[in-house]
Design goal:
- Chain A has 6 helices and 6 strands; from the N terminus they run H-H-H-E-E-E-E-E-E-H-H-H.
- Chain A is α+β, with helices and mostly antiparallel strands.
- Chain A has a 5-stranded mixed beta barrel with strand order 1-3-4-6-5.
- Chain A is extended and about 80 Å long.
- By secondary structure, chain B is mainly α.
- Chain B has one domain (about 15-230).
- Chain B is built from 8 helices and no strands.
- Chain B has helices at about 15-45, 60-85, 90-120, 130-150, 155-170, 170-180, 200-230, 235-250.
- Chain B is globular and about 60 Å long.
- The chains are: A alpha+beta, B mainly alpha.
Chain lengths: ~160, ~250
């Protein structure tokens, strides 16, 4: 074996070892790298006690209720299996909407309500014009065998600003 | 040997220098053409997004810059491997010439990402896996440049820098797959080799901008590598001839 090929093999071997080490470290740190946990994780008792943490999921349809002061809001975050009621006072991002993703930071209080100090919106990776979004919605609604009323199908285009 | 075209000829700085000089104007021109086409398609033709409105248009800078920041690092690591294994002169110069552009792309990616994150997510920055690993990439670029600049002997600088590049390459798959492996605020990828979840004009605008960034990066790296060549090979005959030739033209 020529020395340069030996060197190349050495470099390859070293890279493989670094890769394996990185994979093991990342695997061990898995729970710390995740930005948020899901309501199912909370139900399974994975939420830290008396420490700030983040929960993430979808804002449950029909769960948003605003109080008279205009900045206090309560809603539920769901991963479609479990859900957690969230209480928050502050400014919400524009993309915060029912049925859309959100990540909230805060603590659980005694009654199991998540007292959030920060709420962020998580959007998906789809980019399309409003008309296309409406067409997708309508098609999905038809596939689900539901009647599409003009008011409900008009929801998505209005979401753009 | 027959007189067939020999690519290895260009591994020598003396032959690569004039070749790079001929290629630069072409890459600059291509970059301008792709950039104008991409901006036209992205800013004027592509439709408004259904959930992010006009704000999504920062994607036409953000995604090409992020792609470039990862890809340039891979190329540099490739040059580092070749340099360490085969002791080629050109590979270290190539890696050094690419580093500032890679750092610029990583910075652009983080900066445009922050500008995009505030209105859409509600935060300039979160310590999620995608953002953090991209920040580490920027630090790797800066670290590489600082390390190679701190060592006077060019050969030793290339070796030390090359080792750093090779160790850091493990970060690239982490950046790319972070949104798949962990819960992140950053959304998943919209485009990969087999699928796209973007409207067609949006996708084309983004791909054209990516081509623009490619051509720009190649042009600027070639310019930089020519300077590095002159500096490192200043005692050789070809550099003297080159500089004397230039001086002669000027008269």
């Amino acid at each position: 074996m020529k020395s340069r090929h030996k060197k190349l093999a050495l470099i390859g071997g070293a890279l493989a070892i670094i890769g394996i080490i990185a994979a093991l470290v990342l695997n061990a740190l898995n729970s710390n790298i995740a930005l948020y946990i899901t309501p199912t994780d909370v139900a399974a008792g994975k939420a830290p006690k008396d420490k700030l943490f983040r929960i993430g999921g979808l804002v449950k349809e029909g769960s948003i209720s605003r109080q008279a002061d205009g900045v206090t809001i309560s809603f539920a975050i769901t991963d479609t299996e479990k859900e957690i009621p969230v209480h928050y006072k502050g400014i919400l991002p524009d993309l915060f909407k029912e049925g859309k993703g959100a990540v909230a930071q805060g603590k659980l209080n005694g009654e199991g309500t998540f007292m959030a100090t920060e709420v962020l919106a998580k959007h998906d990776e789809n980019y399309m014009p409003p008309e296309a979004a409406k067409a997708v919605d309508d098609a999905q609604a038809r596939a689900a065998g539901k009647h599409v009323s003009p008011s409900s199908s008009g929801d998505k285009p209005k979401a753009s600003y | 040997m027959k007189d067939r075209f020999n690519l290895y000829r260009f591994a020598s700085p003396a032959t690569f220098y004039p070749l790079a000089g001929t290629l630069i104007p072409w890459f600059v021109a291509l970059s301008v053409v792709f950039g104008l086409a991409g901006l036209w398609l992205g800013m004027l033709v592509a439709p408004t997004d259904f959930q992010q409105g006009e704000g999504y248009r920062i994607i036409f800078i953000h995604v090409p810059a992020s792609w470039m920041s990862m890809f340039i690092y891979l190329i540099m690591a490739g040059w580092a491997a070749i340099g360490l294994a085969f002791n080629t002169r050109l590979s270290g110069m190539m890696a050094q010439a690419l580093a500032p552009t890679g750092a610029l792309m990583a910075f652009l990616s983080l900066w445009t990402g922050a500008l995009w994150g505030k209105p859409m997510w509600g935060a300039w920055w979160v310590w999620d896996a995608r953002l953090t690993s991209e920040l580490i990439l920027l630090f790797l670029y800066i670290g590489y440049m600082a390390l190679t600049a701190a060592i006077d002997d060019a050969k030793r600088a290339d070796k030390a820098g090359g080792l750093l590049l090779l160790v850091g390459v493990v970060n690239i798959p982490i950046i790319y797959f972070s949104v798949k492996w962990w819960n992140t605020l950053h959304q998943g990828s919209s485009v990969n080799l087999t699928k796209s979840s973007m409207a067609e004009t949006m996708l084309w605008g983004m791909l054209l901008m990516a081509m623009c960034f490619w051509m720009y990066s190649i042009a600027i790296a070639l310019m930089r590598v020519r300077t590095i060549m002159l500096e490192r090979e200043r005692h050789t005959d070809w550099v003297k001839a080159e500089l004397l030739g230039k001086a002669g033209e000027g008269k």
